[in-house]
Amino acid sequence: MANTPDARLRLSAHSRSMKDPPSAPLSMYERPPHSSGARRMNSTSFSTPGCRSGKGSFAQTRPEDLLVTVLNAVVDKTPGVAKKDVEDILIGCAFPEAEQGLNIGRVAAQMAEFPDDTCGATINRFCSSGLQAIAIGAEKIMCGFSDVVVSGGIESMSQIPMGGSMLYPNPALVDTRPGAFSGMGLTAENVAEKYKIGRDEQDEFGAKSQQKAVTAVQAGRFKSQIVPIPVKVQKPLPNGRFKFEEVIFDADEGVRPGTTKESLSKIRPAFKPTGSVTAGNSSQTSDAAAAILMMTKEKAKELGLKPMATFRFHAVEGCPPEYMGVGPAVVIPKILKLANRKLDQIDLIELNEAFAAQAIYCIKELGINEAITNVNGGAIALGHPLGCTGAKLTTQIVYEMQERKVRWGLVSMCIGFGMGAAAILEREDY
Length: 430
Prior knowledge:
globular; 430 residues; 33% helix; alpha/beta
């Protein structure tokens, strides 16, 4: 198919739905790698370490500074790419206000000294904001609107806690749909109660997440994808005062060696006195940023770059807000149908562990193979920095697909207010 404006429009239309497939023998997503218009992620993708919100190493670090670090990294570490080549920077953020306000995508682009003609935007789809930013960047490339885009995500939950700095819901919606404003923890309790997912099962899941993460960290699985960041930490002095010392922070700090189901069983419920959802079987609120450099196949070839993966499909689907955790269970069948694939054809899965209860339900409901899911631990151990999470999970899966030399990867998560999101990536040189 010729790479003409008309062809690009046709490709864009078919990327939205497979109900009316192209007349060509293969769809745009299944055609041979040499076909015109194939769109790939470049071989550069990085995240900061994930830090515990409130009292972690990034508690006093502004979100723009975290974002600047990864924006610089994806360009500086990609041979042949300069900041002037990047046409747009798309950043997901779940609570884009206060320190994260003023269109942080553009603010960070300026702070990182991208040229003035490099634009920036901030995208909000709550927990999938980072993944949505990647999808929009891919769509711009697929449509022929851009050749080089950086997408990613940022969330400083230390600076802007869950709910934002000034939550004021519309009273009309509160009256008609009060469950839409349920706290995330209560929605997890709803899922656990409705689908009979007990405390013991949740604690076992949480312990496994920690244990897998410990193994991954000890094996250095995240070293190549994390950008070390210097941070200032307080050191107490004998006279009762303190001083600041600069340390290099290069690892997710929520990982807890020695965690067991038994140790988690001693933690009190966090959201209901008689509930089963605790801090130990829930994701950690955290601070982090991630960025991914994407470009056309032609641009990558021109620069002599080997892409890590091709962004193939993206889908979202709604569900009752009171049970938002079931989001992956409703969106994964949708994206598999879009991709014309079966679940057993997926080689690797990153399923965001917002809560053990909802992750367990989704795994059981879909029959997901746990052996290929969150192989290096999930958000219970590694953190859930809201708007960053989609970009962080995409970074993790792309590196792991390379490590395992597998073809198909799937990223999925539940989303506040009742949604699910998913993306499918392909490594073509598997």
